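Ticket #4471: structure output looks truncated?

Reporter: J.K.
Steps to reproduce: submitted the chain below (267 residues) through the standard prediction queue, then opened the result file.
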Amino acid sequence: MAVATKTPLLTLHNISKRFGAVQALSGVDFEVYPGEVVGLVGDNGAGKSTLVKTIAGIHSPDSGEILFEGHPVTITGPRDAAQLGISTVYQDLALCDNLDVVANLYLGRELTEAEVLDEVRMERRAIEVLKGLQVKIRIVRNVVASLSGGQRQSVAVARSVMWNSKVVLLDEPTAALGVAQTKQVLDLIRRLRDQGLGVVVISHNLADVFEVCDRIVVLWLGRPGGSFDVRETSREKVVAAITGAEFGGPADAAPADDPTAAKGIAP
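Returned output as attached by the reporter:
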């Protein structure tokens, strides 16, 4: 886990975001250090999606400050986030099933030589990246549709870190995976941490969160719900923060997490 005296890779301070009448985020602070896995958790409607999309450049905050490696930055779109070194792997993975692993890793960033695809160089680099992450895919020319769920998730993560990423956001990385595939993905997350990346895991699965995360940040009704060191807390305390029990709120409150999806408001 990262040493607290280090400068955070990513810092969000007092972030607020409103969609019409819906206050999706209010005064949210968030940070992730190099070599740290942070779990971002909360009930449906807590604001997780809005916060992640704010970091990824899909939404712009109404107020607050974003710092990257200690310097104030403005993220106006996904390209700005990518240039900083922030990568997001969404739950749908955004892979092309009919293309092979190499083509997916280089999708939109293909290498060329004399205006011809440099397949050899791309394949060598793909094998190197997968090997560095200890991703077990024997034949990188197999189409993605033939891979297991864990392998597909690994390909999506590998693509996100190929381009000098420093912070990786993983949206429900173990959703709908079996036990063996979940272990494969959690091991990959640990390897990203060991390589010094900051990793944010958005998940409803507290068992996975407690297994792989160093720190857990809770959102409740779009507001900060607490930050917990995994080594010094319990699942009961985190659940209490998620449901609002620690704040005297009803456990069944249900505001809109991402109003652009829930309320049909344009992003």
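Triage note (M.O.): checked the attachment and the full token line is present. The longest strand covers residues 22-32.
Status: closed, working as intended.
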